[in-house]
User: Fold these one by one.
Assistant:
Number 1:
Amino acid sequence: MTLPPARRVAVTGALGKLGRFVVAELRAHGIAVVAIDRATAATAGGADAAATNDAERANADGDNAPARPTDASGAPFVVHHAELTDAAAADAALEGCDALIHLAAITDPVSRPASEMLANNVASTFNLLDAAARRGLARVVLASSQSVLGHPWAPRLLPLDYVPVDEDHPARPVDPYALSKQLCEAMAAYHAHARGLMVCSMRFPSVWLPEQFPWRPTVRLTELEQAAKSMWAYVDVRDAARACRLAMQRSWTGHALLNITARWAIGIKPVRALLAEWYPATTDIRAELGDDTAVFDWHRAERVLGFRARYRWLPDGIHDMGDDDVAVAAGHARPGVAS
Ligand SMILES: NC(=O)c1ccc[n+]([C@@H]2O[C@H](COP(=O)([O-])OP(=O)(O)OC[C@H]3O[C@@H](n4cnc5c(N)ncnc54)[C@H](O)[C@@H]3O)[C@@H](O)[C@H]2O)c1
């Protein structure tokens, strides 16, 4: 079944790094946004993925925050404050919305006690999925993470069964943040099959902001083990936001689990050489790999959402590789896409 595009979308974690871009992306495409966050203020930019939560820190400090939050385009927006671990507050946050993009989370395993992080991420996600099903929302997007596969917070390199790593690759979390995201994916699948919700869990690798150039790619070229744990993957925040917006315009069946990643890897050597060096036991190589082919496979997202990443980070700058999704962004599935 092809559903009409979403008209009014609840965006949780709207004050976060990705949230501000999602708010701007939806509004630029004429989709109304109900922005939700428990923070009362936000720093001007997003936090690094490995850092503590900037929005929450700003809230706790009660300073260094703009009087009116702005989205990534600089336009002000109103934030509805809600603590999403509270079931009633999560339910009320969806009032008047026909879709949900759930980004709110504690985004790492180190900045908070594991029990607090796990309880936050799991309870908020369950509350929202449950409310979305009860209220009959048409679409839900959950922000998941490449971490579910075990990387990149793992204390040591974990084996890959095969490459490119698609969504069917076994997920073996080894840190509590990754576990929280795996549990959220399981709750998404449950709400799809048991309660008829259309849910998309997006596995993002490290999300990069334009102002983090050239620091981010430099780290990939110098911190070699961490780069290998990350599978040399990244996604530009504008691409991550565009994937969220496309999900508000497309239809699929049940629970769609999608890798949302740049189509290119960043490493000091061609990808085949990097794999041979860092993952020598991985001999099951299922696709032709060019020098910087992404190891994290993105093709299912193209089939389901018509999404292909645009932003490619090269040593001389960030290159926009084009509007590949334009032809398929109007809400109509390509042949072969579940609808
Ligand atoms: N940033 C990355 O590199 C990255 C990579 C993979 C996945 N993700 C996922 O993408 C999503 C967005 O990440 P981000 O970098 O924008 O995060 P962020 O830390 O910048 O923002 C998260 C926001 O969620 C809010 N929040 C957290 N718990 C809440 C609760 N219980 N109720 C209400 N608000 C709450 C915080 O106040 C904050 O503003 C997260 O789910 C994260 O796990 C991010």
Number 2:
Amino acid sequence: MIVFDLCCAAGDHRFEAWFASSDSFADQQARGLIACPVCGDSAIAKAVMAPRVGAKSNQQSGAIAKPAEVSATGEPSPELVRKVIAEIAAKQAEMLPQSRWVGRDFADAARAMHEGRAKEDLIHGQASPEQAAELREDGIAAMPLLVPIAPPDAVN
Ligand SMILES: [Zn+2]
């Protein structure tokens, strides 16, 4: 293991990270996997190289508390993201049989329900990214379907 003192281009924030080797650092740096823990900038450069392998025992033990792979950006871990998505997909799969397919009328139908012009119902259908954004702006709850469905009118 080797520790590098790194700094970001955006804010010149200094932080340290451990890597398996110098090559491992170069590889992660090239792929933008290293992010500044302060501002999240991924333009990271080596500040001062400080190999501490075999460091003297008077080193503060707190100095090696940083994990080998930098994940101090506050982002949820990929495992957590996968878990949450899987839970949402399962919930949607459960709800789909009760949901009414409205095809391309989805945005209109959702808006009509939101404004009380139509009966509250569970619906699913198609919306363009623009329509989805408009619904979000108007506070109308809609979310992308995470389970594959065959639109009933797609077989025409
Ligand atoms: Zn920074």
